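Is nicotinamide-adenine-dinucleotide placement plausible here? Inputs below.
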Amino acid sequence: MNSIQQSFSVRFTYPVHFTEHLFEPANPLLLNFFKRQHTEGFQKKALFIFDEGVIPYHPQLPAAITAYFATQNVVQLIPEFITVPGGEQAKNDPALVDRLIAAVDQYSIDRHSYVVCIGGGSVLDLVGYAAAISHRGIRHIRIPTTVLSQNDSGVGVKNGVNYRGKKNFLGTFVPPVAVFNDFQFLTTLDDRDWRAGISEAVKVALIKDPTFFERMEADAHALAHRDLEAMKHLVHRCAELHIQHIAGGDPFEMGSSRPLDFGHWSAHKLEYLTDFEVRHGEAVAIGMALDCLYANRIGWLADDDLNRILNLLRTLGFSLYHPALDADNSEGILRGLTEFREHLGGRLTILLLKAIGRGVEVHEIDAELVRQSIAFLRETETQPV
Amino acid sequence: MNSIQQSFSVRFTYPVHFTEHLFEPANPLLLNFFKRQHTEGFQKKALFIFDEGVIPYHPQLPAAITAYFATQNVVQLIPEFITVPGGEQAKNDPALVDRLIAAVDQYSIDRHSYVVCIGGGSVLDLVGYAAAISHRGIRHIRIPTTVLSQNDSGVGVKNGVNYRGKKNFLGTFVPPVAVFNDFQFLTTLDDRDWRAGISEAVKVALIKDPTFFERMEADAHALAHRDLEAMKHLVHRCAELHIQHIAGGDPFEMGSSRPLDFGHWSAHKLEYLTDFEVRHGEAVAIGMALDCLYANRIGWLADDDLNRILNLLRTLGFSLYHPALDADNSEGILRGLTEFREHLGGRLTILLLKAIGRGVEVHEIDAELVRQSIAFLRETETQPV
Ligand SMILES: NC(=O)c1ccc[n+]([C@@H]2O[C@H](COP(=O)([O-])OP(=O)(O)OC[C@H]3O[C@@H](n4cnc5c(N)ncnc54)[C@H](O)[C@@H]3O)[C@@H](O)[C@H]2O)c1
Ligand SMILES: NC(=O)c1ccc[n+]([C@@H]2O[C@H](COP(=O)([O-])OP(=O)(O)OC[C@H]3O[C@@H](n4cnc5c(N)ncnc54)[C@H](O)[C@@H]3O)[C@@H](O)[C@H]2O)c1
Ligand SMILES: [Zn+2]
Ligand SMILES: [Zn+2]
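Reply from A.M.:
I modeled the complex. Tokens:
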């Protein structure tokens, strides 16, 4: 009777919809989702949580949602809309997790009911976490409102909050039951958030899809000047690549390979060194530039590919140098390598490009070549367009 | 570009070992597990958490563990052993979750390291929860020390803590990476915990395995008199049935069928009505008796089967009546039906037996027949052996 080997698979499915004006009466997308999920005998509820930063730009939203749900009875709308502060602060305050759990309790949201979150990646991460731990997981629907959350975080399976300043220290892998990307939200982002979200698209193109990279080169000026049609294509293709990556690989990251961390070892450190004044996407743009210069110096990435990458990032409006890169002391950017190694459990793994669309993992990085790459960025940096 | 359907499966595997004297130098089981998991370049750590209620009965445990790990270097033992109070109080105090998370932080336990918990179902539920939410899931190893946790909760995929007195309000579905059932722990349980754990075994036998039921009938006296060999068989077979149930069905309970809740609608309420003086397993014994009497009254369960079930439970030493069953007011036992319906999301589903080993779900329960069944238990109850 020595041992029994348990083994099973759990299947997860969810649709990711691309739409505009989600809550207009003529748009049946969301309601059709609830209708498909309807089960005779169950009165399902929907509790809405808003990113406070979205409301001033979309003041009609609460009334539109109330009107949208008034026409049906497959799902019962909880009349109170809960709002939480937008941005990273949403993930820093443990009281917000408590507040969301208290709301789940107060409105008796059970495992057959829904928590619907409208907001940027930060608020989605917070709400996804609260939903995941309540009743061992309440169904949650994401309505992402930023470029980053529509093309990356919102379509994925992770959630999380910070703990004593440690990023995403608490969190789970739990997929949403549905994602609704409404492009209209993107029109009200400030320029920095519009741009920052694009860098994760450049990242997936660089590691997975040279054709997508070419399309971004063609659209670079339009994207930099906030052309919504160009952005729709970018968000859709980037989301699609993420979705495929998750399904094709290791959705809950049980192994140790993390190709999507391309450009991130220095980016994380740069965000931290600048006290998060540099946004994540902005830092990733710099981090990718740095690792591409490095790959070129070790003879991997050809000059032509390198120049195309630096040009695309600059045309998009990214600044590719920040003085914090040169704070070359024990707490400087190179310390990011050590922290990244620790984060990975003791063994450093960094993806570097052989060509646009093709990366290979390395386990060592030469500090001197990193310093040379930083010097190059410092000397060549011009003002963003 | 309207929608993308995401769809993927995640595979979970873990061994459930049955052993004795897990930490004796001659027992290589645990060390072999760590060796199999070893990856070149990663220094994995193991953080041990103890159920405080186990230590007085097994005072040699900390020294034995230290000695056991001293002989190897595939895994680094964290020298501090953390202890948390045993029993339900472990799940009632949010400060304990914080304390465990702080330890994960303090000792830099990453996603490749282990949290190892030694304790009853309550402490395992707490530690499993803390491990599941730290870094989106640290590998956790369960070493269950009670009958219930060895044959049921410890081999499954759920964890949880209570929130404002609401049982398991917070929790997740996250499998352990391994379970080590050491039968020696069972020898130090008090009689009530020894017995209470048996009732979940009677439950799975009643809904899944008539042969197992017969074996328990044959072993009933031995079990009642704490025969460890009889208990080993029971724990192994019950664990096996649970493991098969999880793998064969709906591991993360996404649907609404819950056959393992047999006998539980009244059990939950009875625990609550007696302020948890009646233990879960004791309440389940009464709940099963009640639902079997009910099934007999509606013409499903034959007299002979009914009598065998009541006899087995009584021979095992269970008391099948409690005065709280007769507190027939708006807060009485029948209120448990309403709460169970709400818990299920609006539709009542109760499994009732047609025969030993064969259950069928119903969606309505006749209150008057429940009252008659309670009256029968009151009138026929004799003192437990
Ligand atoms: N879960 C994941 O897989 C994953 C992946 C990448 C990043 N993230 C996380 O995402 C977070 C960043 O998310 P983000 O980039 O979406 O930014 P954000 O959520 O921090 O939002 C930035 C600001 O934009 C505001 N805002 C949101 N939508 C708006 C709109 N439509 N119009 C105007 N203002 C709007 C917000 O209120 C906030 O002030 C980080 O915490 C990061 O860790 C998570
Ligand atoms: N996660 C699941 O799937 C699941 C399933 C069923 C029950 N549970 C939970 O399990 C909990 C009950 O667990 P339990 O029945 O194991 O009891 P328990 O963990 O509450 O322990 C009961 C008492 O026994 C002590 N103890 C533990 N091991 C001992 C030993 N070897 N010798 C002497 N004393 C020992 C404990 O310190 C405690 O005082 C409940 O909270 C219940 O909700 C969870
Ligand atoms: Zn990123
Ligand atoms: Zn039970």
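Short version: Chain A touches chain B through 71 residues (CB under 8 Å).
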